[in-house]
Amino acid sequence: DFEKLPKIEFGHEQKDECKLKPQTKVQKDIAKVWSEVLNVKSIGLKDDFFNLGGHSLKVMPALVKLKPLYPNLK
To answer: Which tens digits make up the pLDDT trace of 33-44?
Structure first.
């Protein structure tokens, strides 16, 4: 039962005041998608998808959300 497993704390998320915030539309779109897929409150420019808890199975939902915004994304 997954409910009984202890929650994993990755500890790689920077404090909000230390983060470089996304500036461009592309950066903001990617940060929003990562935040939704990884359940992370805020994403900084220097954050790493995998250090924030991302893995190969989380890449696909991120791509599915980004594809309508960027149809040429491969």
So the answer is: 999 999 999 999
